């Protein structure tokens, strides 16, 4: 009996390890393909050779045009796609763990809409006090402020109930959308075009400074998140059980909501609103390898990076020479899956009542 129990425990671990290796390999392959494919095609071998040459491990540089395309256009976009995807995927897994609901995602607590308010306001009112960093900083700051407002409004009697937090997030989301509409009303045609393009989500304006802008926040959040995997596993047993096992549920919720805000606000600030990555990725991994957060949290970061690399590659190649908005593409794929997920969850629970 103990031997079979040990074997049953090793099976999910082996599956999780294989999935992690597969996801990591997929990210590397997708990154190389994304760096090489486009209006100016670069063979994968030449991409690898240029990368090795830059780090002093042999290889050979490309011609002047090839080097410029690869290092000034493609690679910043590839790295930004990985950072944004990893941030959204990881944030989604944390949200679902905190709320104990596979239908939760970062937008629930208003961080995406809040970041959008800052970005849209900076465009509509022509704010330039930080130069090219103005939009990014405004989006990041308003995203964090929105999360803090949602948290403070939903807190009562020294505690924060999940249902109250979600409903407060819905109300704040609606208010944020009203502010966005007001900013658009006062904007001119050129600003409206820029706002619309940003709201649809895109990585077409990726540069190394934008990568550096999101890198500290993304790395901080991605490194902190796995440290709370065990506590999330205990929280999944129920709040009362988690408290009996020594988990400070309220403190855990505060910390993880702030980590989610850090990850999501940084991602939204540089990419616009990219829907459904934080919802779908953790749920798919949970279906494949179980609910354990020791795999789910880092696995969601890897899978999110892979999904956004593939989505961004499709966005800029499916309709060449035009480029599809990234957020539109992820929503087109994610919406039907979300509907299926709702039906599946409802069927398993025998209804919502």
Automatic annotation (TrEMBL):
It is a multi-pass membrane protein. Pfam families: FecCD. The chain crosses the membrane at residues 78-95, 107-127, 133-153, 165-187, 207-229, 250-283, 295-315, 322-342. GO terms for molecular function: transmembrane transporter activity. It comes from the Bacteria. One of its GO terms (biological process) is siderophore-iron import into cell. It is found in: Cell membrane. Keywords: Cell membrane, Membrane, Transmembrane, Transmembrane helix, Transport. GO terms for cellular component: plasma membrane. Belongs to the binding-protein-dependent transport system permease family. FecCD subfamily. This is Iron ABC transporter permease. It comes from Streptomyces tardus. The lineage of its organism: Bacteria, Bacillati, Actinomycetota, Actinomycetes, Kitasatosporales.
